[in-house]
Specification:
This protein has 6 helices and 10 strands; from the N terminus they run E-E-E-E-E-H-E-H-E-H-H-E-E-E-H-H.
Length: 260
């Protein structure tokens, strides 16, 4: 018997250090970063009998830097290590206090754009200096990897990171009303590029697709465990494909809205 599944994608834009995307960059002394957004995928199965939730965040590189002109790639970086370190640590103290663990996924260019590489290197220097077991990080040169429209390389990235970001520490929240059990998400993936828009939205969407696939697989396994001879929740792959397509449209709209 087929049962209803509702999928919601909800983004919450932080009000601190708010402003248009080309005029707000970096961090302030309170540890707030520009373009900070928390996005939540919510999946309700059988009218809320089981609810799944997955949260990920995006935010500007947590250092003091700016970018003056819309069409310029020139980055002005304030290389005051003590000041950067203080604000940087405030930012990650806040994230760890709120989410438990943080996986930093950096999409800045590492070779052909020296200003982006400099920002990324400065961020990772402070991450390494902090030596915090609740912080993990990974760099992925998005522009270099997907050059020529090679978007399939994102699937390689997802496979490479699966052992971490799809682990029980980061995966998703579950609440079952029948057995009254709750499993909490123990960490969050924090993704950044330069403006936290196109590159970030694309990669976050693919993380979300992987999470949805895990949720659907979880439901299928639970369904078969309860009744091994029952039909699956979805008619072959048809309904599952419709859900995935709907989520893809949501992420496209999400990116458009956050760019305004």
């Amino acid at each position: 018997m087929n049962k209803p599944i509702e999928v919601t994608l909800l983004s919450r834009r932080h009000t601190a250090k708010a402003g248009t995307r080309f005029h707000q960059r970096g961090i302030d002394e309170g540890g707030n970063v520009a373009n900070f957004v928390e996005t939540e995928l919510i999946v309700r199965y059988n009218n809320g009998e089981t609810v799944f939730s997955h949260v990920q965040v995006r935010g500007s590189v947590p250092l003091f830097w700016s970018q003056k002109a819309k069409k310029s790639t020139k980055v002005s970086f304030k290389d005051n290590r003590a000041k950067n370190k203080m604000a940087f640590n405030k930012h990650f103290d806040e994230l760890i206090g709120r989410y438990g663990r943080v996986f930093v996924l950096n999409l800045l260019s590492q070779a052909d754009k020296p200003d982006e590489a400099r920002l990324g290197n400065a961020m990772f220097d402070l991450l390494q200096e902090r030596q915090d077991e609740k912080l993990q990080s990974h760099s992925y040169d998005f522009h270099a990897k997907v050059t020529g429209g090679n978007f399939e390389d994102i699937l390689r990235l997802m496979s490479e990171l699966q052992g971490e970001i799809m682990s029980a520490r980061y995966r998703f929240f579950i609440h079952g009303s029948v057995n009254n059990r709750t499993y909490r998400q123990g960490g969050v993936v924090r993704t950044n590029c330069l403006d936290c828009l196109d590159r970030t939205n694309f990669v976050q969407a693919h993380i979300s697709y992987q999470i949805l696939a895990h949720i659907l697989s979880f439901l299928v396994d639970a369904h078969r465990k309860n009744d091994p001879h029952a039909p699956t929740l979805w008619d072959a792959r048809g309904e599952k494909s419709e859900i995935e397509q709907a989520l893809q449209r949501m992420w496209n709209e999400n990116g458009d809205k956050l760019s305004n």
